[in-house]
Amino acid sequence: MRQDFYIGDSLVQPQLNIVQSRGKSTRVKPRSMAVLVHLAQAKGEVVPKKELMDAVWGQSVVTEDVLTQSIVELRKAFDDSAGEPKIIETIRRVGFRLLQPVTAAGSSPRKASFFGALVRRKVLTLAVAVMVLVGGAIAYVLNVHLAEAPVEHTAPSVAVLPFVNLSDEQDTDYFSDGLSEEILNTLARIPGLRVPARTSSFAFRGRDEDIRVIGNSLNVATVLEGSVRRSGQQIRVAAQLVDASTGYQIWTETYDYELADVFAVQTSIANSIVDALSVQLGQERRPRSLAGTANSDAYQLFLLGRHHLDNRLGDWLSDARKAFNLAIEVDPLFARAYCGLADTYLIYSETPAALSRADSTPFEEALELAGQAIDKALKLDPELADAYFSRAAVAAARSELAAEEEDLRKAISLNPSLVRAWLELGVNLIAQHRPAEAHGAYRKAISLDPLNPQAAARMASLTAALGDYDSAVSYPIRLLDGGLRSPLTFEALVDINRAYGRFDERVRWGRELVRVAPTRAGGLAELADAYLELGEFDLAEHWARRVEDISPMQAVKVRSRLYAARDDVVGIARLAQSALQYDPPKEGVRLTPAQSSVQGIVGISYVMNGQYDQAISAFERVRSESPTLNRRSPELPLFALNWLILSHFRAGNDEAAAELLQTASSMAQHTLNQGYGKYPPFLWELSLMRGLSGRDEEAMQLWQDAVAMGWRHYFLQGRDHYPPRQALGDNAAFDEVMRKVQTDLAAMRQTVRNNGWAESPDEFFARDQITISGAR
C-alpha cells in the first residue's frame, strides 16, 4: 500500500512517511510507517506481534522493543493514548489492531498536501522546520558508504544514539535526550574510549537507519541505543550495545529504577559498556555520574534548561533561565546549574559572545550576572570545565583575548571532548592572528564531532579566508550530500560565495537557507543582499521589506547598503539615526556587537553626507570597542581603518590620516604573513589602503588581483562615495576591470533568471506554500 489513505479522519502518506492528524503533520520513521501500513491492510483485524516483526524487520536481530517504539511513535503522531485508544489498540500478549476504518484517499475529497495543510493553518513554526531537518538527517556523510568488509578500529569506540522516549507523558523528550547525552559525556571522559559528540550522534534521530551505516558514518565499532519510559516516579531504561560491523547485539539490559535513582542508571550503563568493550581501566578510573547533584528534581530541571538552550524554540531563553533558577532553588550547591544560568546571559551564537536578540538584559549587566553565576560555580567545583568555558565567553565579550584563550584551554584540559571549547578556541586564535593553530583546533572539533554543522561552517570560513574556495565549500557540501540540511551549512555556503563574488551561487544557497529556516531573519537578509550585489535592486527591496516584518534590526544592514548603492544619502542618514535610537550607545560603556555594526553604518552615512568629524568619532569607537571586529573575517579591521583614514583626509586631518596609514600598512603586512593574501575581500581592502596612500600602481594591481580571485562587489557601499572611483577612476586599466566585473554580473543575473531564482518573497513562499508567522 503506497498510495495515500485515511484512518478515520487522519491522512496517511506512506511515500512521505507523514501522518496528518488533528491539524498537525508528523513525519515518522520508515519502519513505523511500515507497521502502520501493515495494520491498515488488516482492515481492523488483530495483527500478531510476530507477524508485524517478521513483515517489517525480517531477519534482522532485534528485540520486541523496536515494535513497541514504533507503536509509541505512531500514537504520538495521532495524539492517541494507550490507556484510552481511539486509533491503535493493544491486544495484551497478542498484538495490535486499528479501531478506525481505512479508506483510500482518492475516494474522498478530504485529500490535501502536507504544505497545503500548513498554508490553511497560516503558520510554519520553527518546530516544524526542525522536525523536517531532523527527519532528513544523515544517511551517508563525508562520502562514506556501507563497506562490504567491517571497518577496522584500533581503539574501542562507541556512538550513543538519542534514547527513544516511550513515555505517554507529553513534552518529556528533554529527559530521554538529557539521559542519552549524560551517558555520552560520561563515556567521553574515559581514556582509551572514543565517543563521537552529541551533534553527530543525534543527527540520526528519527531515521530507521542500519546500524552498520551509522557505524561507518561515525567511524565507530559499536553503537549504543535504547529507550526511556517514565511513569510517575518510575523509569524503565532499556539499552543495547550493537556491533556496528555485523548489527548483532553485544550486550543488552533493562533497568527499572525510581526516578530519584536516575544517576545510578547512567553509571550502570557506562560501566556495562566499559566491561563489554574490555576497556582497560583501573578501578579508580571507572566511569561515574557527572550530574553534579544528588537531587533528581534539580537534575531534571537542569536537563530541561539545557533542552531549551539546545533547541531554541519559542521563548527558549526565558524558559531556560527559569529552569536553571529553579534547579538552583532546589539545590543551591548544584554548580552545573549556575553554569547553565550563566550561559543564558552569554550565548555563543551568530557572533561570538553576542547576546541573543531574545534577551532584553543590558549588555554590561548581562556580563556581570554571568560572571557572578560563574564565580559561584567555580567556588562549588573548581574543576568544572563548563565554568571555564562560560568564563571565556565573558572575556571574549570584553575583547580580553589572552584571558579567553587561557580559560578555553583550561576547559579543554579538564574535558578534552568539549567540542564547543575547541570551536571557540579556533575563533580566539583567528582573532589573535594565528590561523594555523585555529585550523588545528577546528580539525580537532571535527574529529570529535564529524557531523557538526557548526564545525564544518567554521572550518569552511577559515579555509575560504586562506584562499582555497574549492576546499572551503567541500566542508558544507559533504554534509549536504549526506542529507544534513542545517541552516549553518547553508549560511557557510552563502558567506563563501559572497566573498568570492559568485552571487548566482549565493542566491542559490540563500534560497535553500530560507527554505529550511523561513522564519530566520538573517537568512532573509542574506538573500536580499545577494540580489543587491547582482544589481537586482527591486528584488532586494522586496526581500528587505520581508526582513523588516520579522526583525527591523536585521534589516538595517541590507537596507543601508541599498541606500548606499543608490547613492541615497538622505535615506542612509535617516536609517542610521533610527538604528541609533533603537539601541543608543552610551558614553564610557563598551559597544555591544549589534551596536558596533550600527556604528559602522552610522559612520558611512556621515561620510556620504560630508559630516567627517562625526564619522571619525563613529569609526574610532568601532576600532577600539567592537568585541567582534577581529573575530570574524580578516579584512574587517582594515575595512574600519580605511573608512577612518578616508574620514580624516576629507576632514583635512592629513597628519592623522598619514599616521593611521602607517598603522594600516603594518596591520596589512601582518595579515598577509598569516596567509590571507588570496582572499578577495582582503585584497580589495588592501587595494583601497594603497590608493589612500597615493600608491596608485600598487592599488591598481591589487584591485586586479582581487577581481581575478573573485571580487565582484560593484555596488558595495555606493559607487560614487567609496575611494576607488576617486583614486583610480581616470585609469584606463580601472575601466577595463570594471567592464569585466559588469559583464560577469550580467551573466550571473541571467543565470539567476534562467533558473527561476529571480522571485519576490511572495512568489517564493507561494511556490513552496510556506507562511511565516514571525520569528527573530
Provide an overview of this structure.
- With 776 residues, the chain is of the alpha+beta class.
- Helices cover 58% and strands 8% of the residues.
- It has 34 helices and 13 strands.
- A five-stranded antiparallel sheet has the order 4-3-2-1-8, with helices on both faces. Strands 9, 10, 11, 12 and 13 form a five-stranded mixed sheet that branches.
- Helix 19 packs antiparallel against helix 20.
- The longest helix is centred in the C-terminal third of the chain and has 23 residues, at 732-754.
- The chain is globular, with a radius of gyration of 28 Å.
- Residues 107-153, 280-289, 348-358 and 772-776 have low confidence and may be disordered.
Label the overall shape. Answer: globular
- Count of DSSP strands: 13
Report helical residue fraction.
Answer: 55-70%
Structural classification: alpha+beta
Mean pLDDT over all positions: 80
Computed Rg: 28 Å
User: Low-confidence spans: pLDDT under 50, at least 5 residues?
Assistant: 107-153, 280-289, 348-358, 772-776
Secondary structure tally, helices: 34
Largest sheet: 5 strands, antiparallel
N-C termini distance? 42 Å
Strand content: 5-15%
Q: Order of strands across the biggest sheet?
A: 4-3-2-1-8
